[in-house]
Every structure is written in C-alpha cells, then in structure tokens.
Amino acid sequence: MAAKSSLLKVILLGDGGVGKSSLMNRYVSDKFDAHLFHTIGVEFLNKELEVDGRRVTLQIWDTAGQERFRSLRTPFYRGSDCCLLTFGVDDAQSFLNLGHWRKEFAYYADVKEPDSFPFIILGNKIDVVERQVTTEEVQRWCCDNGGHPYFETSAKDATNVAEAFEEAARRVLALEDRQAHVMPSDVVDLRRKPRSSSRCCL
Amino acid sequence: MAETRHTLSSRCSCFFLYDRSKVREEGDLTRAGIYYYYPEHTPLDLQELVCGQLAGVSRCVSEISVSPVRLLRLRRSKYAVRMRDDFLWALSCVNDLPDVSVCEFLDQIIDLFCFYNGSVRHSYQLHTQEELAVRWAHYLSHLQGGATELHHIFTCLTTIDYTHIDPLLLLKAALILQACQRCPLVLAGCILYRGRMVSTQMSPQLTMKVMVHERETYSLQEQKKPASGRSSLMATPHYSTTTTTVFLKPYELHTLRRPLVDNTSSCRSESPERPVKPRLLSRTLSDTPITDPSSSQLLASSPDSSLSDDASFSLCPSLASTPFRSGMASQPGEVGAAESHTHTFASEMLLFGGLAPGPGEDGEQERADVSAEYQNHSNNNHENLRALRDGEKKEEEGVEQANDIRERRSDEEEECVRVCDQHDVALEPMLLYEHRVRGLVLILLVEPGFDTHPNAKQEVYHSSMASLNGLEAHLRTIPPASEIPVVPYTFAHYDRIQNTLTTNMCGRSAGLQDRLFVKATALVHSQFSHEDMLQEAIIRSAGSALYATRTAAQETFFVQHGVPARNSGIPNSQDSAFSLPKNLPPSSNTF
C-alpha cells in the first residue's frame, strides 16, 4: 500500500510568473486560478500515480521565482530526484535564465554529476498567442545542455501537464533502476561516503 | 477523568461555579448549587463553606453597592468574582498575580466555556455535571499551561518568536488566511504553529479561544503517533481536518460579519465594481516594501497599522478584526471615505502611541485631545468598539465603589458583562474548521453552512494545502531560539491592542534576576491598571532598578543588569534606571 509506493521529490524551478504553481495545481488538483499570487518560499503537494505498473508518490515542490525569495527556497533543493526547469514561451528572458536555474539547483542541491541528473524542461503558457520562444530554439538548447527532454505545456488548458510529470517520475525510476543495477544493495559504496565526509571538513 | 494537574506553573488555587437558583430555601443544601469545584478532591464540607460564604458576601456587597462584584479581598487571598444570571464564578490564585490578571483569568475561563459549549444554563441542561467538569478542568489546565509567568501576568497570547523568523513567512501566513477568505463562508482565521500564534485575523480574545481547540487536537494527534515518530522532510505528511461547533457572542459575530459586503465582491473576480485591480493580491506583494524587517514584521503582526496605505487592503475583511479598524469599515458604500479615515486614523494612532510621556498637564491635555478625536470616529459604532480612554474614564467614576472593582483593557468584555449580568446573551452557533499539517494548524471561523456546502470545504482545503505544507516546512527548519544572545538587560513589551508580549527572558531558566524582574513587572503592571494617569514608574531595590512606561496601547518594562545603581533619591535623568544601552532590540524602541 502506501508504504510500498516510493516517494519521489520533484522540484519546479524557473523565473517568477512562468506558471510553476499553476502547473502543480493543474496536475494535482486539476484546477487553474488566474489570480494566484506569488509563491513565497516553497510549497508542495503530493500526488500518487502509477507509472509502468509501479505506484509512486510524487512530491511536487513549487518554489518562488523572484530573486528576493532566494534564501527561502534554496535550502529545499536538497534531496530532489528530478528538477523541472520551467519558462514561459511568451517570455524570452525566462528562457535565457534556464542556465542560471540549472546552475543554482546543482549548487544548492549538491548534485554530484549535474550532467547525468534528470532535468526536464517545460515551456509553459503555449495557450498564449504571442510566443517569444520557438520550439526549435528550446530543442537546440536542450541538445547543447545534455539532451534534456522538453515539454510544451499549458496549465490553463491542461495541455501536456500530466505527461510532463509522468515523464519526470519515469526518468527518476529509470535512473534508480540503473543505479541499483550498477551497485547491488549488498555492496558498500566506498566512492560516495568519503566524498561527503571530506566536504564536512572543509 | 478530570485533569487536576497542580504544577509549579499553576496559577489557580481555587475555582468554582455555583448556581444560586438551586439554593433558595432554608432547607436547600449548599452542595446542590456547586456545579464545579477545583481542586476536585476538596472535601465537600469545605467546598460548601467556601461557596456559601463567597456567594453570600458577593450578593451582599453587590446589593449594597448596586454594582457587580469583581474582586473580593480576604486577609490572605483574593477572589475574582463573576455573577451572571443566578450563576456565580470565583477564582483565586496561588501566587501574587495582580488583581487585573486574576479577573482576566476568570473571564477567560468563562469565555472559553461559553465559546465551546454555548450558554451555561443550556449546557447544564444538556450534559451532566461530570461531563462538564472535565471541560472546566480542561480549560483551567489550558490557561495555566505552557506560557511563562510573564504571560500569566499579562494574560496575553503566546506567539511564535517574531525575532527569529523571516518576516516573509509571516507575510505568507497572512496571505494564506486572506486566500481562505475568498470563500464567502469563511469569516476569519488564524494560523498556529506548535501551539503558538503565527498570524491571526481575529481579535485577541477570539484567538485565545480558538487556540484551545488546537491544543486539544494536537494532543490527540500526538497520542495516535507511532512511538518512533521519525518525521523527515521526505515523509508523507499526515493531514487532518475537523470542524466543531462554537458559539459566538452577537457583537463578536457582528464584527466578523460586517465586512461581508467587500468580501463577496472580492470573491467574484468579474465584479463590475472593481475593474481596476484585477491582480489584487500579487500587486500587493510586489508593491509592498518587504525588505525592511521591522516593517514586514508589522505586516503580519499588526496589519491594521502598516497596510493602511494600500487601498485594496483597507477593504480586506481581515483587518476588521481589531476594534479600531472595524470602526472604519462600518460605513458601507463609502469606500473612499473609509480609506481616508483610515489614513488619518493611522497617523493618530502613531501620535497616540509615540507621545512622549509629557510631564503634568500638557501630556494629559494631548492625550485627551487625541482620544476625543478617536471617540468621534467610533461614536456611531457598536458599544464594544469603545475607545480605550473612554473605558478608563468610566472606571474613574466607578473607583469610589466599596467593592474592589478593577476593570481594564477589554472594553467589549466589560460591556458584555454589563449585559450578561442581567441575562444570558443569546450565543450564535458557528463552525470552527481546522486543517492540520503536523505542527502547523490553520483555524477558520466559518458560517454554519460551510459543512453542508457542496464544495466550500474542498475548495478551502485544496487552495490552502500547498501553502500550508510549505509554511510548515519553512517553520520546521527554523532552529529553536536557544541561542538568545546574552545581553545585560531584560525587557518586556506588552502590546495591549494585540494582547501580545515581546520579551528577551522567555527561553532562559528563571534565575534570581529574572524572578525579581517578574515580580517587579507584576507590581508595576498592577499599578498601571489602577492608576490611569500613571505613565512612568521606577521600582528600586538596593542593586537594580526597573523602569516602566506605558501608553494606552502598550506597556514596556526594562531593567539593566550589572550597572552600579545610581539613585539621587529624586527623579533625575542621571539615575541608572534611565541609562538605556545603545543598541536595544527594535521591538522595544520603535514605539
């Protein structure tokens, strides 16, 4: 039952106003509120789902995009299994900032190998008519930065939202499977421990 | 199983409820009138002796003086007394609590009982004395538990430590409450964390009452928790919501319901009346300067003073919780006028609070002027919205009375009692909705229809859940305030309007100095409550001096340690009691 389903922490990052909270609300409660105010710090919701026959609980962490909330949100990056980098297709700057978000996440979440960490790129607000970012541009960026999957979503119309989160769950599970395959559970992991302890000494 | 915990912190040494209507004839036994007696193991003979005598004296004194008795002082103890209908409550305390605190304490217990059970007469018709005894014991133990002795002296709310929390989180809490009010059935709410108040939209009196419910459900949850109790960030949080019936006094409800006009208009975002600000709340967030810690602290803790320059907020029902603001919001349809009033009013309040304690007649004159204006504003309001000064004046008139009447601070309570002394007020049943996320609790006062409404509950639940989860996660990561810097002074700042206390002596173990501070504070607080004109006081011992000052809105107590006491014997600015250190914490010198 609940004990069996594993908890996956997924975090939404991106500029303020690109629709991170709306994506979470659409996916978890299937609601859309155009008058949401800025998120302060972090918020989260849990959603149970079944991916490829496995029950998982997705814990979706929504964060504040504004710079002034930075110190409130960064402590909660740690322990994330997947990071959804979000931008608005109607906001070119939010797309240009994706790199910064990726860096900020890798730094505060203390990701050992950012290149193999499951990032997913979400271009939200495709319901808006005046686009500033083309699909090709994003796909090129994704290719250049480690081949992250890209989803074009609309929290307002519920387009592609569930697909994106399910993909996140799938990626995390796939990664876990790979790691479990590489390191059988009865083997002590000598590589990781000393690293973390040496970090403490610094 | 009534809890008769008698810990060190217990203030109450005796409390009883007595029904005089049960003892009319010669042959009637006194014990028939005793509904509840604390401590519960007291021999019945002794109970009869105390109840019989106090009831007799109270009746005699109130008939002679033609006013209800509030305090009976015996040689070694004193009893706060309340008489309502045929009921008589009396309470006496172990330690030397000021008169005013004992009376407050008694009022709080009675208020609590009526809040959760409705009218006393009715409750005793519905339930057995044993059932209700458990509740009296519960309220007694709640009011005595947890808080520090200073809190008991001021009978104030226990809040989270505002000096150790990011003010943005207080803003977050306030916004959660406002978001809940988008549902028209929600009147007001408050957020508590581990039994302490984080943010509230209700009056201090109401907040105090709803906090009892929180503690009840918290201990229930603690019992259910498995022994391991490992709660990591990653664990699935357990949510629970409950609703329970509570009873509000007509004026409390009136105050809460009054801004309903604005409330409904803000619920329908398509409302033609306000096309100007489609993104009301986000606008507020981006435009409110929140970088200054002191101002943002005010944002959450006293919304009526700091947000008054935002028109959208002055319409907000949450602000109607304080008497001052409710006065302003009472003119329906005059939004602009109400707003401009608010402006003048806010500045008046500043003036009022910031008045230097003027010596002699000048200061008095100024104070009187301000309060006169203040009265003009609130003239046409409900009686409980009376100005503080007004209440004080009334008291002056009554001060000559033979019995020891000490009525302070809560004017609405006073009014209520005047009414209650004649007959039981009709209490209105409402619902208390509670949503708990671990140690964090959202409590909302909602209309009775909330429970049966097809989707109101769902909507409030879903719209607040993510934010509550987040706020809980934030508050959990704040380290406990154990590392309070040791400073060479102790202060206590009491906010009479919000009924909160800020002090730097909370976390420490009570040493001799602290005990002296508490004792001196109690003494001066008592003195302040007796003497309306008293604005400053100094109490000295051989080694130290406590300086205290007050306005209509606050009282501040201060003592500096380790300085050679300089005392010229007459008021002198060179005295050590006046030598404040250079960097006081903001809470004690911003006012």
Automatic annotation (TrEMBL), chain A:
<keyword id="KW-0378">Hydrolase</keyword>
<dbReference type="GO" id="GO:0005829">
    <property type="term" value="C:cytosol"/>
</dbReference>
<keyword id="KW-0968">Cytoplasmic vesicle</keyword>
<dbReference type="GO" id="GO:0015031">
    <property type="term" value="P:protein transport"/>
</dbReference>
<dbReference type="InterPro" id="IPR005225">
    <property type="entry name" value="Small_GTP-bd"/>
</dbReference>
<keyword id="KW-0547">Nucleotide-binding</keyword>
<keyword id="KW-0636">Prenylation</keyword>
<keyword id="KW-1003">Cell membrane</keyword>
<comment type="similarity">
    <text>Belongs to the small GTPase superfamily. Rab family.</text>
</comment>
<dbReference type="InterPro" id="IPR027417">
    <property type="entry name" value="P-loop_NTPase"/>
</dbReference>
<keyword id="KW-0449">Lipoprotein</keyword>
<dbReference type="GO" id="GO:0042147">
    <property type="term" value="P:retrograde transport, endosome to Golgi"/>
</dbReference>
<protein>
    <recommendedName>
        <fullName>small monomeric GTPase</fullName>
        <ecNumber>3.6.5.2</ecNumber>
    </recommendedName>
</protein>
<dbReference type="GO" id="GO:0005764">
    <property type="term" value="C:lysosome"/>
</dbReference>
<dbReference type="GO" id="GO:0005886">
    <property type="term" value="C:plasma membrane"/>
</dbReference>
<dbReference type="GO" id="GO:0005525">
    <property type="term" value="F:GTP binding"/>
</dbReference>
<dbReference type="GO" id="GO:0003925">
    <property type="term" value="F:G protein activity"/>
</dbReference>
<keyword id="KW-0597">Phosphoprotein</keyword>
<dbReference type="GO" id="GO:0005770">
    <property type="term" value="C:late endosome"/>
</dbReference>
<keyword id="KW-0653">Protein transport</keyword>
<keyword id="KW-0813">Transport</keyword>
<dbReference type="GO" id="GO:0032482">
    <property type="term" value="P:Rab protein signal transduction"/>
</dbReference>
UniProtKB/TrEMBL annotation, chain B:
<dbReference type="GO" id="GO:1903232">
    <property type="term" value="P:melanosome assembly"/>
</dbReference>
<dbReference type="GO" id="GO:0016192">
    <property type="term" value="P:vesicle-mediated transport"/>
</dbReference>
<dbReference type="Pfam" id="PF19031">
    <property type="entry name" value="Intu_longin_1"/>
</dbReference>
<protein>
    <recommendedName>
        <fullName>Hermansky-Pudlak syndrome 4 protein</fullName>
    </recommendedName>
</protein>
<dbReference type="Pfam" id="PF19033">
    <property type="entry name" value="Intu_longin_3"/>
</dbReference>
<feature type="compositionally biased region" description="Basic and acidic residues">
    <location>
        <begin position="387"/>
        <end position="396"/>
    </location>
</feature>
<dbReference type="GO" id="GO:0031410">
    <property type="term" value="C:cytoplasmic vesicle"/>
</dbReference>
<dbReference type="GO" id="GO:0005765">
    <property type="term" value="C:lysosomal membrane"/>
</dbReference>
<feature type="domain" description="CCZ1/INTU/HPS4 third Longin">
    <location>
        <begin position="488"/>
        <end position="562"/>
    </location>
</feature>
<feature type="compositionally biased region" description="Low complexity">
    <location>
        <begin position="292"/>
        <end position="311"/>
    </location>
</feature>
<dbReference type="GO" id="GO:0005085">
    <property type="term" value="F:guanyl-nucleotide exchange factor activity"/>
</dbReference>
<dbReference type="GO" id="GO:0006605">
    <property type="term" value="P:protein targeting"/>
</dbReference>
<dbReference type="InterPro" id="IPR043989">
    <property type="entry name" value="CCZ1/INTU/HSP4_longin_3"/>
</dbReference>
<dbReference type="GO" id="GO:0031085">
    <property type="term" value="C:BLOC-3 complex"/>
</dbReference>
<feature type="region of interest" description="Disordered">
    <location>
        <begin position="570"/>
        <end position="591"/>
    </location>
</feature>
<feature type="region of interest" description="Disordered">
    <location>
        <begin position="262"/>
        <end position="311"/>
    </location>
</feature>
<feature type="domain" description="CCZ1/INTU/HSP4 first Longin">
    <location>
        <begin position="14"/>
        <end position="118"/>
    </location>
</feature>
<dbReference type="InterPro" id="IPR026091">
    <property type="entry name" value="HPS4"/>
</dbReference>
<feature type="compositionally biased region" description="Basic and acidic residues">
    <location>
        <begin position="403"/>
        <end position="412"/>
    </location>
</feature>
<dbReference type="InterPro" id="IPR043987">
    <property type="entry name" value="CCZ1/INTU/HSP4_longin_1"/>
</dbReference>
<feature type="region of interest" description="Disordered">
    <location>
        <begin position="387"/>
        <end position="412"/>
    </location>
</feature>
<dbReference type="GO" id="GO:0031267">
    <property type="term" value="F:small GTPase binding"/>
</dbReference>
